[in-house]
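Case 385 in the screening queue. Each case pairs one protein sequence with one candidate compound; here the compound is LLP. For every case the pipeline is the same: read the inputs, emit a complex structure as tokens, and attach any notable structural observations.

Predict complex for case 385.
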Amino acid sequence: MIKGQFPIEKFRFLETPFYYYDIDLLRQTLDIIKKETQGKNYHIHYAVKANANPRILREISSYGFGADCVSGNEILRAVECGFSPSNIVFAGVGKTDKEINLALDSDIFCFNVESLPEMETIEGLASKKGKRARIALRINPNIDAHTHEYITTGLNENKFGLNEQDLPKALNFITGASHIELIGIHFHIGSQITDLCAFENLCVRAMGWKHWFENRGVRLQLINVGGGLGINYKHPNHCPIANFESYFRLFDKHMKLNDDQSIHFEPGRSVVAPCGSLIAQTVYVKEGLSKKFLIIDAGMTDLIRPALYQAFHHIENMSSEEEPTCYDVVGPICESSDTFGKNREINKAKRGDLIAIRSAGAYGEVMASQYNCRKLPKSYFSDQI
Ligand code: LLP
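Case 385 output:
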């Protein structure tokens, strides 16, 4: 089964570790998103931060989707890779003057504003250019997304967005400002959310805020609900694609908008995680006193998620059909956290066996580092090798 999925004969000629992207799976995912959103007032802005590999970005932009960027360089990369600036939203708590100017010069669709001083800065810079910037206010809805604390963003204690008390002040400022135009509200409650109830709660809060603005005479064009839809890391072979159907249905059901109002989504992980695998080679099998270690040539520098968030990634030995054996799968980096999985049942391994770490297409390659003077991992695509 596994051998059928990966062109393992071709992998033998490539230097490990590397990222391998299954372009068919990416397209299947994009097809589903397109099918579930077309004919509705739904707009997709792919979260570039999840994977900014140019080939991947070009595939996604070819579907006509927009981009969600969090830095000036992400805006430049997105535009280079075919995303239209008129479909780019720009979030982030620390937008610099340089980045705001770049976004204004590029005529992006919308700034997702995260604080009062940021809003004042955008007004000032837009005024110097004689432009009018479209903005959405990112509201911190104080919703627990029940995900890892490092990837929870919508609680009062998080640094993101404006809180309830800021909103009257924000509205007051916008009313008197002539170089910003308020077009919507924005939320993002966290990432790898598998309990869809969190999104249901978000819809309730978002509708509440929409009415709050309407009661003050402001009609919003859009509600941006951010990203966050989780994927099934445990069973990548059985359910590789996220449950977009239930996800989008939920918004159909709970967001009551007029025909001229739209919902914007910023999915990242759910778009790209399933299609990517980190491919490594077994360097040594080491018998410890109480454990067996499968030591591979990929490390936390190539995929930091397990070390940083205790994230689970399914691991397979593509070269062996022998009985599963219990291993701790570790990398070569000089840190104990350089561990991809503990007590994993993996087909008995020997030196040189090829190992696949699955569902690594999101926040994998893009978070790689050069710690220990390592090379950044290369990437290969299923239709190019
Ligand atoms: N929109 C905003 C404003 C965001 O901050 C994020 C992710 C997204 C959209 C996309 O969320 P997604 O659909 O991918 O869940 N490095 C971590 C994830 C950090 C997510 C940061 N924000 C990880 O590897 O799990």
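Case 385 observations:
- The first strand starts at residue 18 and ends at 21.
- Residues 23-272 form a domain with the TIM Barrel fold (CATH 3.20.20.10).
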